[in-house]
Amino acid sequence: MELSDRKKKILRAIVDSYIRTAEPVGSKAIAAMPDMNFSSATVRNEMAELTSLGLLEQPHTSAGRVPSPAGYRLYIDELMQDYRLSVDETQSLNQTMQVRLQEFDTALAQVGKLISKLTNLPAYALTARTGAVTVKHFEILMAEAHSFILVLMLSGDVIKNKHIKLPLDVDEQDLKLLSAVLNASLTELPPEEITPDLLARITRSAGSAASLVPIILDYTVEVLREQRERGFYMTGQTRLLSQPEYRDVDKAEALLDGLDEKMLSNLPATLEQNTPVQIMVGPENVAQGLKDTSVVMTRFDIGDGMQGLIGVVGPTRMDYAQITARLSYFAEGLGRMFGKNELPPASEEHQQEEK
């Protein structure tokens, strides 16, 4: 929809005011703002039209207006001004990210806690692969007597291995044949395509090592499924209780009870490369339990074909510009830490301010 510049200015002022105060906004309050050169009557008429367009809502007959989900969407897409992090904020974020992130499972929990603390909202972090995981190459290595090491070289340069006992009648030559059969039949296949028929064909071709085929295929499927599963961490749910929208105990309890991996599984597992930040407002969320909330999420690169995703969940009345700026900076820093163990450099504007 195409709005006049005056309507856009008034809508932006209403959203900004509601984000700050959590109170419905009246025409007199808007008209009294320093940069508004419209009369209260003009503002009132414009607010009535914005309401008829579905961009504002009126909670009570005599109350002011609040943004609707459609109003927030227009604000995010067209009216929201960029939030520039201050020198103090970037320094604080950098200090926060000095935490040593080692095993990624542990790091995932740390990331969620840090984001929740920075935004004062529930935060989640997850990992997901950017493409299908398959085996690129099988290697079978003789170990001590009557055992061998199975090595799986996966897409994304991930390597997995397993120590397996050998039947007495299998020798190194048999293992070389089995390795060749596996590489000819199983590479580049997702787990769904490793079927009983394929198992039977490989077993027939494996000669004296046929008894090892079920063991190897079971392990291969287990590894591929394990690599595909997302890591998930959620924290800070009780921070919602500090938001005015959730002073209603029943409303807060309903959301807190359902704010878990199952509910958030309906959110995107990955973001498009040209969409660094995604904001989902109210009804845009698929999960019924998130219809009155907004989700802001962004990604960071982990390497090895993995992508990390961090996000916050909160009321539709959240400071989208500030949260987007903080999440983006944090994600950039995490990407550098996992890739090169560096923090993002301060921008030229920040460096000039610092001087």
Structure, explained:
- 43% of the residues lie in helices and 19% in strands.
- With 355 residues, the protein is an alpha+beta fold.
- Strands 7-3-10-9-8 form a 5-stranded antiparallel sheet.
- The radius of gyration is 27 Å and the shape is elongated.
- Mean pLDDT is 82; it is low at 347-355.
Rg, please? 27 Å
Taken in chain order, the helices and strands follow as: HHHEEHHHEEEEHHHEHHEEEHH
Number of contiguous helices: 13
The geometry reads as elongated
Structure described in brief:
With 355 residues, the protein is α+β, with helices and mostly antiparallel strands.
Keywords for this entry:
elongated, 13 helices, 355 residues, disordered C terminus, alpha+beta, three-stranded antiparallel β-sheet
Layout: helices, strands, pairs:
Layout: H1 5-21, H2 27-31, H3 40-52, E1 56-57, E2 66-67, H4 69-79, H5 87-96, H6 104-119, E3 123-129, E4 135-142, E5 147-154, E6 158-165, H7 172-185, H8 196-205, H9 213-228, E7 231-235, H10 249-258, H11 261-264, E8 277-281, E9 293-303, E10 306-315, H12 320-340, H13 348-354
Antiparallel strand pairs: 1-2, 3-7, 3-10, 4-5, 5-6, 8-9, 9-10
Helix pairs in contact: 1-3, 1-4
